[in-house]
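Weekly structure sync, notes
Attendees: PL, DS, HV (note-taker this week)

Item 1: GNAT family N-acetyltransferase
DS walked through the input record. Source organism listed as Pseudoalteromonas caenipelagi. Sequence as pasted into the shared doc:
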Amino acid sequence: MWIRNEPLFGRHVTLQPLNLSHTQGLQNAVKDGESWRLWYASVPKPEQMKGYVDRALEAVQLGDIAYAVINNETGKVAGTTRYYQVDAKNKRAAIGYTWYANSVRRTAINTEAKLLLLQNIFDTYSAIAVEFKTHLFNQTSRQAIERLGAKLDGVLRAHQIMPDGSLRDTAVYSIIASEWPAVRNNLQHRLGAFPCSAT
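Item 1 (cont.): predicted structure, written out as tokens:
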């Protein structure tokens, strides 16, 4: 394994390796905002969460690193995120499968989670590049990725079949190693604008 499956600790959040005990917390988190109703998002319904976690853990056996995002202030599960398509030979991976409870959006939670993930892969594991992928029509996700400082590499047209049968065009972004210092400074600056409380 190139990236160790171990917790990442921040001031506002802890990224805990995902396990079955997080299922109920994720069910509670997804009910806050009902993100599964967004046609362009791949977020499970509460009753689908057990299967979602099971599939995530299967992916971990194949090389993904999946996390439950824990709000340090409340101790509750705020959402989930993951390294996937981990390519040890070429020192690159994608970050995705990320969603949060509505109550923690636009707080320090996502900002610090991204900082922890990027800091880990670039500083600890000397990654060459990190990718982010999202539905072309998911403007909220695209804007969040662009605020990180990621650059648009291109669009994969008719890339995936969505659960409703529609075809997803996927916007692909990346951050390369030479860009990481500026991205880190941007994230640290943004994180400094939040109080110690995550809410």
